[in-house]
Amino acid sequence: MYRKILITTDGSAVSNKTACAGVDFAEQMGAEVLALFVAPEYQYPIYVEIIPPSYPSEEEYRAAMQRAGQGHLQAIVEAAERRGLRCAGATAFAESVALKIVEVAAERHCDLIFMGSHGRSGWGQLLLGSVTNKVLSHSKIPVLVHRLIKEPQGHENAT
């Protein structure tokens, strides 16, 4: 039914559990996986007139976020490969995480977006997380929203 599934992660324990469920779902479908981490765009400090020497340059920031993204995506890619699934990981930069998820899904010809009901903002929200809500309202392809029954303990790797 689905040939290529985009699985999102923000690196949180909740997101890792959701990614694990996404890989399981992809295995059931025999689908290829695209794991995606979206980092915020670089922000210049607007509260000072001179950028402090300790403030990272845009290049340093992007390199650090690429490394962080690789770390967040590695477990998903490895879990998919252990199950014999084709998988790629990608880190993208955007002001709007939700719009970037939708954009990448379209550009990479995904036919499903698999994501959690909540990410870093966690369990404090009663309704869907804001990123998930925006993806649902902007996506032209199906979005499967995974909701965990209980909050994960600690920050262990779920996949």
From TrEMBL:
InterPro entries: Rossmann-like_a/b/a_fold (IPR014729), Universal_stress_UspA (IPR006015), UspA (IPR006016). SUPFAM superfamilies: Adenine nucleotide alpha hydrolases-like. It comes from the Bacteria. Residues 1-145 form the UspA domain. CDD domains: USP-like (cd00293). Pfam families: Usp (PF00582). Gene3D superfamilies: HUPs (3.40.50.620). Belongs to the universal stress protein A family. This is Nucleotide-binding universal stress protein, UspA family. It comes from Rugamonas rubra.
